[in-house]
Amino acid sequence: MHFLIPLLCLFLITSISQAAENPTTAAKSFRSGVVLTFDDRYVDQWVQQIPLFKKYDAHATFFVDHFYLLKPAQIAGLKKLQDAGHAIGSHSVNHIKAVDYVRTKGMKAYLQNEIDPSVKRLTEAGFPPTAFAYPNSSRSEEIDTALLKTFRHLRGGTGLTAGQRMRDLKAIFTPVDQIAGRGCLIGTGIDYAGTEKRPDYLTEIKDAMDHAKQRGEIVVFYAHNISDKGPGHHLSPKALEEILAHAQQIGLPTLTYDDLP
Ligand SMILES: [Zn+2]
Fold this sequence. Notes:
alpha/beta, TIM Barrel, 40% helix
């Protein structure tokens, strides 16, 4: 039987080298999608929803601020999210509004104090970020340009005006062939969808997803905590499940920022 051992070794070496040639970072191909993002540092609650995402083979991006305050268990939680196929992005160091900071202290100080240390700490912990979400959606083209030297994509935000349909919020949709050329993607907030605060939102979200699917576009959403009662702004697990189920039903892939070209 000894002759099998060299054969087995050869097989193993070949498998390993093939794996190296096909890194998992290879761009995913898709014709439309929904990009679900969650901000701040509700790691404990996010981790609890890993099985829900898994049930629908769905993935999201988690944008983290104040990384330096995370406990080892929370960093381990981010690792669990990452291992489950989710992406981890930067949400700055101290969650300060970018426009105010740059106006008062300058761009160089902003990058040095609010961006570089976040990227460094995330990278050192094993989460090199490809994307950044602006705290409070405070952004400008000048800051976009500066940040796009570090990140592949950014996320800004916008809201609905009274009576406006979500599908008419043009900024949140990007045709798939224009993603690579659009550094900053704009999302809209979906916290409280399906609650008294936003009773019609689930219908609007699903309709916006249908719209993206029909037109070959991606649509970007953001929320914060995933829980029924907070703390903080939150989307209920039940509402999240409705969104994930709808994506699966209409064949709309859930994409992370790391999946975007
Ligand atoms: Zn935030």
